[in-house]
């Protein structure tokens, strides 16, 4: 009996630590964190305060687990600058989603997350770090056409949300910038788990002044009230697992492969938002989804990455 169980558990562990397994884990956790933010918004939570506490709490949990941050051969200054840059981009991308999800819906935000793979390639192309590929550009344009069609369809149905729609559409570009930044400036010798904790804490520290200025100091009391405290606790646990897995995936597979987590989040998050949260999709959702899937398929046909995977 034991001989059958051990190979099975070993196979599960191997899959969970493989690029594909990590991709599915991180993408699913990203979808869960977005859905939690929709629940928090429905409870009238101050979203920037909620985000700062979720990031800060998960960063502290990780720091306790790793017993601090070992900087490796890069040095403390390099790790600090890296963590501030990565944390700032992560916090900005999350804040855009969290501040607009109540207006545009979790399904729309989830679908928007299908675009970071394309922008993660496009940004190095603009910076002349990647060679031009007409086939990938074709996939990018088809996918963007799907996103534009969805945004216009939803905007026509709810014109008062157009400002929130436009802001939400910046999310994949910010996340793509974070993907490229983390890969290009990864401090030599630093581990994924420790960088995740430093990035989350720095992201929280950068978000906190804006949260206090916009939402006021009393916003903390609202977050620590039940049932918001339950949502925050689950969000912290989700962030811990999500960002440890994300940094490990970035380390073993590179930024473009990692950026596909948005596609996984879109596949997981959109149906859940409809089935579990009762959201109504815009009229053009099916057509837009088909265009985005077609664009992603064409884009991912090219397997070349702008950066090599970071050595462990």
Low-confidence sequence ranges: 303-312
Could you estimate the helical fraction of the residues in percent? over 70%
Molecular shape: globular
Q: Tell me the domain tally.
A: 1
Structural class: mainly alpha
Percentage of residues in strands = under 5%
Q: End-to-end span in angstroms?
A: 36 Å
**Biggest sheet features:** none
Number of strands: 0
Mean pLDDT: 79
The radius of gyration computed from the alpha-carbon positions, rounded to a whole number of angstroms, is: 19 Å
Order of helices and strands: HHHHHHHHHHHHHHH
Contiguous helical run count: 15
Characterise this structure.
There is one protein chain. The protein is an all-alpha fold. The chain has one domain (24-301). It has 15 helices and no strands. The protein has helices at 2-17, 19-42, 47-66, 76-104, 106-112, 116-126, 134-157, 162-168, 171-184, 192-215, 219-223, 228-253, 255-258, 261-275, 285-301. Helix 2 crosses helix 14 (261-275), helix 3 (47-66) runs antiparallel to helix 4 and helix 4 packs across helix 10 (192-215). It starts with a helix and ends in an 11-residue tail after the last helix. The model is unreliable at 303-312 (pLDDT under 50).
């Amino acid at each position: 009996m034991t001989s059958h169980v051990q190979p099975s558990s070993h196979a599960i562990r191997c899959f969970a630590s493989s690029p594909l397994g990590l991709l599915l884990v991180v993408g699913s956790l990203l979808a869960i964190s977005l859905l939690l933010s929709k629940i928090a918004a429905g409870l009238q939570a101050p979203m920037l305060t909620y985000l700062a506490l979720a990031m800060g709490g998960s960063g502290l949990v990780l720091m306790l687990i790793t017993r601090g941050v070992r900087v490796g051969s890069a040095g403390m200054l390099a790790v600090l600058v890296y963590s501030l840059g990565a944390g700032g981009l992560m916090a900005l991308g999350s804040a855009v989603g969290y501040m607009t999800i109540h207006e545009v819906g979790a399904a729309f935000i989830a679908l928007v997350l299908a675009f970071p793979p394309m922008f993660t390639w496009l940004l190095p192309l603009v910076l002349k770090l990647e060679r031009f590929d007409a086939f990938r550009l074709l996939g990018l344009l088809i996918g963007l056409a799907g996103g534009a069609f969805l945004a216009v369809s939803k905007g026509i149905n709810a014109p008062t949300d157009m400002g929130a729609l436009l802001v939400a559409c910046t999310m994949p570009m910010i996340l793509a910038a974070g993907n490229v930044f983390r890969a290009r400036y990864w401090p030599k010798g630093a581990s994924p788990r420790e960088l995740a904790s430093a990035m989350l804490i720095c992201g929280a520290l950068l978000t906190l002044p804006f949260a206090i200025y916009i939402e006021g100091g009393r916003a903390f009391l609202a977050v620590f009230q039940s049932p918001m405290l339950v949502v925050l606790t689950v969000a912290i646990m989700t962030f811990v697992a999500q960002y440890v897995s994300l940094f490990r995936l970035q380390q073993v597979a590179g930024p473009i492969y990692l950026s596909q987590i948005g596609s996984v989040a879109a596949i997981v998050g959109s149906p859940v938002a409809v089935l579990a949260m009762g959201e109504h999709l815009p009229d053009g959702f099916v057509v837009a989804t088909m265009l985005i899937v077609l664009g992603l398929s064409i884009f991912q046909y090219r397997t070349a990455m702008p950066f090599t995977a970071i050595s462990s």
